Amino acid sequence: MEQESRLAGTVRPGGRTARVRAAVLEATRDELVEHGFHGLTMDQVAARAGVGKTTVYRRWGSRAGLVTDLMIELAEQSSPHADTGSIEDDLLANAMAVVGAVTDHRLGATFQAVIAAGTSDAQAVQALRAFYLRRIEEWAKVVDLAVKRGELPEGTDGMEVIRAISAPLYYRLLVTKEPVDQGVARSAALRTLAAARAGAFVPLPA
């Protein structure tokens, strides 16, 4: 995602430029929530942000550029991993963080709009991948800490553990359209923990 972070508009400037970026990204998020990716237009984002259209076109180039920068910003704003000293509590915290995000009116709608965009836009896919990779890498640290404490087997793949917690939540959210609540999140975390303790996430020898 290195090349994506070099898109115009993704550098963190100060002063008026920072205020413009903040206003444009907030407007982008509002437009995504209300109209989805395919209803997102550069002109409407500019109008909503109170910014000249030429500024938006020059700095972000396309709606995909806007979405990419928005996902970068959301990743940078997201909270660090839990550190309770217990892998069970840490994984439960991860599951609750995911369900809190996907069920939030604005944040959840933003994710769903960008995920939908990923079905037809390669740049949206890269933006999503970068966002989730960053979050998975952050939370995988709790697994590494648990291995050091002796709570999980040596060699446990932390990133796969975190993916395994989120997967059933996103499946319900996007595929079956079933409710995603704290009970579902808790079950996902505890099942994943049981599998991890049994060594299911230790890679097999080549």
Task: Describe what is shown at a glance.
By secondary structure, this protein is mostly helical. It contains 9 helices and no strands.
List the helices and strands and how they pair.
Blueprint: H1 15-35, H2 42-49, H3 53-60, H4 63-77, H5 87-103, H6 105-117, H7 122-149, H8 158-176, H9 182-197
Please explain how this structure is put together.
Residues 1-12 have low confidence and may be disordered. The protein has helices at 15-35, 42-49, 53-60, 63-77, 87-103, 105-117, 122-149, 158-176, 182-197. The protein has nine helices and no strands. It starts with 14 loop residues before the first helix and ends in a 9-residue tail after the last helix. It is mostly helical and 206 residues long. It is elongated. It holds the Pfam family TetR_N. Keywords: DNA-binding, Transcription, Transcription regulation. Residues 41-60 bind DNA.
Please state the overall shape, judged from the principal axes of the Cα atoms: elongated
Share in β-strands: under 5%
Largest sheet: none
Structural class: mainly alpha
Question: What separation lies between the terminal Cα atoms?
Answer: 29 Å
Element order, helices and strands? HHHHHHHHH
Protein name: TetR/AcrR family transcriptional regulator
Keywords: DNA-binding, Transcription, Transcription regulation
InterPro entries: Homeodomain-like_sf, HTH-type_TetR-like_transc_reg, HTH_TetR, Tet_transcr_reg_TetR-rel_C_sf, TetR_C
Organism: Nonomuraea spiralis
